Amino acid sequence: MSGKPLVLTMGDPAGIGGEITAKAWRALAGAGPGFAIIADPFWIGALDVPMAVIKSLDQVADVFASALPVLALSLPEIPHAGRPDPANAPAVIASIERAVRLVQAGEAGAMVTNPISKAVLYQAGFPHPGHTEFLGELTGGTPVMMLACPHLRVVPVTIHVSLRRALEGVTTEAILATARATHAALRRDFGIAAPRLAVAGLNPHAGEQGAMGVEEIETIIPAIAALQAEGIDATGPYPPDTMFTDAARPTYDAAICMYHDQALIPLKTLDMAGGVNVTLGLPIIRTSPDHGTAFGIAGQGVADPGSLIAAIRMAAELAHRRTAA
User: Do 116 and 249 belong together in one domain?
Assistant: First the structure.
């Protein structure tokens, strides 16, 4: 293993986070990247995986090959697979906060978050729409959500809001902020010297020159023009139903999409198991699997760890590039 270890959050303990973490450790124990999870040792101990409770991330390199390193954080209630308990929400939140502090302190190279249940956290008074927005508050950054897989990178302008509110949030300023953050991250963290951004339209056929909506004319095209004036290679707006085809995807490095599902449906259709959620615009590196808690299959031993493994590997790659820059 090379570089600083990564730190994983526990996610909702009633979901599949523990299971996929154990499976990810088994897949990566031989060669890394090395990581530790912030979690309750009692919970991890029930997963039938070798475990080593550690005091600091300095110990990861010594134990990772033979045991899953655990930074202890107690849960108030014993978790039961598939039965989320709001009483454990403070520990879930504390796991995220501790991971952020470890990366900020330079002890971890990056953080990888296991899936949370927003609804469960809301019951405990969690005021943020999701992980992304919470991380922005903790780090002082302006978070932008990217979903990435080997075949596609997508970045939605609006994220965890209703479709009606998302339409209201599609503004020239929001598109500019999202595209700028994406361009900067592609250069710094992904090693792309001259990123190409494809900007999606909002309406069918990208508005059909105003016949099916004027947002392209009034909002999106002015944003693209401003980006081009700044020297950013941004093109569009493209009809959303054709810009994700096999022929179209190689022509750009990231797609700037107008709302959550416009971005995530094509990526998850292409590669659900290999998709990674990357938060751009933060002073730290954070990745996550592109799926949720999967309460319906929790505890059955059938959860696919592919997306978490991809998130761990991507976090290590991004941390290496950022350190080398």
Answer: no
Please tell me whether residues 253 and 303 are part of one structural domain. no
Q: Which residues contact 37 (CB under 8 A, 6 or more apart)?
A: 7, 8, 9, 10, 21, 44, 68, 69, 70, 71, 114
CA–CA–CA angle 23, 27, 30 (5° rounding)? 135
- Above 90 in pLDDT, residue 32? no
**148 and 70 co-located in one domain:** no
Residue 126 has pLDDT above 80, yes or no: yes
Determine the residue type at 123: Q
Instruction: Give the global pTM.
Output: 0.92
Find the domain containing 299 and state its range: 1-142+286-325
Task: Please indicate, yes or no, whether residues 160 and 216 belong to a single structural domain of this protein.
Answer: yes
d(CA 213, CA 197): 22
Region 35-49: what's the mean pLDDT?
A: 95
Residue 254 shares a structural domain with residue 184: yes
Q: What angle do CA 233, 288, 35 make, to 5 degrees?
A: 120
pLDDT tens, residue by residue, 281-297: 999 999 999 899 999 99
Output the domain CATH number for residue 175.
3.40.718.10
Instruction: Based on the fold, state whether residues 269 and 310 are members of the same structural domain.
Output: no
Q: Are 207 and 217 in contact (CB under 8 A)?
A: yes
Measured in whole angstroms, the distance separating CA 271 from the mean position of its chain's CA atoms is 15
Give yes or no: residues 132 and 196 share one domain.
Answer: no
Q: Each residue of 197-207: pLDDT tens digit? A: 999 999 999 87
Pull the structure tokens for residue 55: 């005091």
* pLDDT tens figures, 227-274: 999 999 999 999 999 999 999 999 999 999 999 999 999 999 999 888
Report the first-to-last Cα separation within the chain, whole angstroms.
Answer: 20
CB 20 within 8 A of CB 12: no
**Angstrom distance (rounded) from CA 294 to CA 304:** 11
